[in-house]
Amino acid sequence: MKFVTFILIIIVLSCVFYSYRPFMNFKGKDSIANGGNAKFKEEDYARERKKMVEQQIMARGVKDKKVLDAMEKVPRHMFVPEGYRRYSYYDQPLPIGLGQTISQPYIVALMTEMLDVDNEDTVLEIGTGSGYQAAVLSTIVKEVYTIEIIEALGLRAEESLKNLGYDNVNVKISDGSLGWPDKGPFDAIIVTAAAEKIPDPLISQLKPGGRMVIPVNNTFYSQDLLIVEKNDAGNIDAKKTIPVRFVPLVEGEKVAK
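and the corresponding structure tokens:
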């Protein structure tokens, strides 16, 4: 029993550590806290992106070629605040303002692979954030519908996606836990914020045979990343994969402007 308790404590401490990593890895004038930024060129970013895919993503077992190609193609640095761009391809999340983060590249790739989507699929994303996950998905699937409850983030992401030519991404400012009923049902749903439980509207908007990837809170102050599958009869099967740490899913009136 003591051994199990010890393991749980280690998991919790690891999750807390990863939450603060964006602010811990850099020192001096180029620290994240000070917003230092090197004058990188596009070819420098492309080289770093290729290294990111090889060393952070492929090396950890992500194999889907569609996902690997998307991660190498989408310019993550264009979804990161300018002061932090030199760190865009580091193995960690980064702050994007208003208490939110852009997810670690490996987690973006892993969750995209877990969705198991292709170019005929329509995907719903809950938690637009910077727009990066939506951009990655847009290079693989037919259409992306993405919802952000924080208006300033949603509008910024919409502008970034439009300027970068991701024309098959549709952004809505709303409560993501309610889904986007008039555009569903969806072949896949991805949730990039931690829910207390799987929202019922999202289950109803998932097509039979569809798949949802969602982090759900557990009792040990971290989250379980779930793969949720819906069979032809409408029954749900949820499988735990790995422990993760996401910002909370904001619902209802808890909206930051």
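(Above: one complete record from the training split.) The chain has one domain: 2-244.
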